[in-house]
UniProtKB/TrEMBL annotation:
Transmembrane segments: none annotated. PANTHER family: NAD DEPENDENT EPIMERASE/DEHYDRATASE, NADPH-DEPENDENT METHYLGLYOXAL REDUCTASE GRE2. This is NAD-dependent epimerase/dehydratase domain-containing protein. One of its GO terms (molecular function) is oxidoreductase activity, acting on the CH-OH group of donors, NAD or NADP as acceptor.
């Protein structure tokens, strides 16, 4: 079976590609440049089951047309992971909203035009951000679950980078569900989404450990390297999931009929920055005296006024246990330390 995955060089996407190849799927990935394509092919040992196509700008009109013209008849599953993920932008529409929404619409339109009869399942990588109501982020009486939706509109989310990112995920996911409703008779595919919280865990390849990592892993990287921003995050708390659990969820999302039409909410519980500090100080003696200590043992105090996230339905569909905070932090940190011999 052939699976097409957009944004194949991404943090989560690389783990998905790895899982797909291990399960003997033929994988077609889209990447932005030939340089990225060459690097990824080499990293996967020039695996003959992996081929790569260039899509330089997912927001461009008909961005995926050429890929589906070429491969549409053979593709059975589409995993759409490509979307911008950063919160520092001030060009909210240009950097976040338009690429996220147009990229999602574009790949679905290309399926409709060139693979309506061949693509059977589509999985969109969304985010808990598409479920979160930012105004209730400090309300302990609130419960978010698989049916929750971020109430943001195109206009309302353009107040800061964080709101714009969250809004982009909501609007892109909503566009996917709306597309399927409007084109139910024109396409045969069924849709699922994967909605993770902050995603920790190692990069698939050690060589991809850079001075600055993807948004979630940078929490740990900043702490290990004692960057100034680590001190600013001392009071931070949120929810976590391991990248390897997220990648597995993408496969289950198209392999199980129980996942059809479902939003899979990926979280294994809460974390605080203090807990990250405690784990690193306890498990990596070489870091003692070099990184923040904070107030050891007080991490769970940060959970006050946090909403509850209930993903019981998702856990039942997936059917596998998630990795603990200690395991995901330890594995992330161990890889960073392997790469940085000075620490």
């Amino acid at each position: 079976m052939t699976v097409l995955i957009s944004g194949a060089t991404g943090f989560i996407a690389q783990h998905i590609v790895n899982e797909l190849l291990k399960q003997d799927y033929k994988v077609i990935g889209t990447v932005r440049t030939q340089e990225k394509a060459d690097k990824l092919k080499k990293q996967f040992g020039n695996n003959p089951n992996l081929s790569l196509e260039l899509v330089s700008d997912i927001a461009a009109p008909n961005a995926f047309d050429e890929v589906f013209k070429k491969h549409g008849s053979e593709v059975k599953v589409v995993l759409h992971t490509a979307s911008p993920f950063f919160v520092t932008s001030t060009e909210y529409e240009k950097d976040l909203l338009i690429p996220a929404v147009n990229g999602t619409k574009s790949i679905l339109e290309s399926i409709k035009k060139y693979a309506a009869d061949s693509v059977e399942r589509v999985v969109v990588t969304s985010s808990f951000a598409a479920m979160l109501d930012l105004e209730k982020a400090d309300d302990a009486s609130v419960v978010f679950n698989e049916e929750s939706w971020n109430p943001a509109t195109w206009e309302s989310c353009q107040v800061n980078g964080g709101a714009a990112y969250c809004g982009s995920k909501k609007l892109a996911e909503a566009a996917a569900w709306e597309f399927l409703r409007e084109n139910r008779k024109a396409v045969k595919f069924e849709l699922s989404t994967v909605n993770p919280v902050y995603v920790f865990g190692p990069q698939l390849f050690d060589e991809d450990v850079k001075d600055t990592l993807n948004t979630s892993c940078e929490f740990i990287n900043a702490l290990i390297h004692n960057k100034p921003e680590a001190k600013h995050m001392q009071e931070f708390r949120s929810n976590y999931i391991d990248v390897r659990d997220v990648s597995r969820a993408h496969l289950v999302a198209f392999q199980k009929k129980e996942a059809i039409g479902k939003r899979l909410l990926l979280t294994n519980g809460r974390f605080s920055y203090q807990e990250l500090e405690d784990i690193l100080n306890e498990d990596f003696p070489q870091l003692k005296g070099k990184i923040l200590v904070g107030n050891p043992g007080s991490g769970k105090e940060a959970y006050k006024n946090m909403p509850t996230i209930d993903n019981t339905k998702t856990r039942e569909i997936l059917g596998y246990p998630f990795k603990s905070l200690k395991e995901t932090v330890d594995d992330t940190a161990a890889q960073i330390l392997r790469k940085d011999s000075k620490l």
